[in-house]
Amino acid sequence: MIYAVIDTNVIVSAYITKNLMAATSKIWAAVLQGKITPVYNDEIIDEYREVLRRKKFGIPEHLIMWAIDRILMNGIHGERVPSQEDFPDPKDIVFYEVSLSKEDAYLVTGNKKHFPKEPIVVTPAEMVEILQKEGVF
Question: Which three-class secondary structure state does DSSP give residue 76?
Fold first, then answer.
């Protein structure tokens, strides 16, 4: 089983791209199909709700609710594991700290430079490669 905290920017990108072959689209599809088990906590779910509802993205409410329901049904709740790392954006800390709660969990983000390398912080394209090597795709 592959566990991953999915940064909000990956979900937003998956919804707004027209390219279903984009790495973000593939990652989001893998989450929805149960090929990736999302790791989350209440703060992450709250951020998903807030960001996905921004008018500039134009994501329909029913898709937002459906996506969050899938994460809650198919994912696992993780607790924050305090980190002493410095972050350029304090909102990113929760994603990193929740990823520390599950051994071997990935953190998938389009902003890799905003995070320490450990645990395994990967871009959507790198996650696609991992899934291909694992025979998931």
Answer: strand
